Amino acid sequence: MKQGGSDAAKQAAGESAAEAVEDGMVVGLGTGSTAAHAIRAIGRAVDAGLDIVGVPTSFQSRELARDCGIPLADLDDVSVDLAIDGADEVAGGDLIKGGGAAHAREKVVDASADRFLVVADPTKEADHLSVPVPVEVLPMARSTVAVAVAELGGDPELRRAERKDGPVVTDNGNLVLDCDFGDIEDPAGLASDLSTLPGVVEHGLFVDMADEVHVGTADGVTVRELST
Ligand SMILES: O=C[C@H](O)[C@H](O)[C@H](O)COP(=O)(O)O
């Protein structure tokens, strides 16, 4: 995964997207270090009187939002006006997400939003998607999915935990295969192929879902509007 961006660039992007949040909105709260800056900025606005409700996309974003005093709800009770989320790679309007293994819940929340803003630093931008695609799988299906991914031309690797022996276990109790497909020429086709594999809970290809990409640098932010 690309983790090279500066924190100042991530902060600029997160705070830029947070400016789109308006009184009365239901806001999807993304996961990761860039989305965290947006959550903190929204928290400061809530402190100052902004009346919004957040829908978290992970344990991490829920915990941070609670720390920031943002009232929370789930999708049984509200519908999302605006979602703000990070990405591991951005090529045109397509993304790879799931560096933090949160992509299944993120996709549900981001896809349900009226508007979806992506926040990123310049290291995430690319001409073609090419970082490994995180694929969340039912634990009992990890071997069958790995074989099927190889048949699709991918090289799957079980994601290992860093401060625990064994695999990363997602917020949903599943495992993650990071699947290297090299340069992805047809993201929509690959997304569709991965979605049909039995045992795949969700993959990290977000094709044509974003409405805007906010790319921060230490000197400012570029906002790219996408036609979806
Ligand atoms: O699972 C994690 C998410 O998809 C993150 O939004 C993505 O990994 C980007 O995270 P960061 O902003 O920390 O690079």
From TrEMBL:
GO terms for cellular component: cytosol. It catalyses: aldehydo-D-ribose 5-phosphate = D-ribulose 5-phosphate. GO terms for molecular function: ribose-5-phosphate isomerase activity. The keyword Isomerase applies. Pfam families: Rib_5-P_isom_A. This is Ribose-5-phosphate isomerase A. The active site is at E106. Keywords: Isomerase. The gene is rpiA. CDD domains: RPI_A (cd01398). Substrate binds at T31, G32, S33, T34, D85, G86, A87, D88, K97, G98, G99, G100, K124.
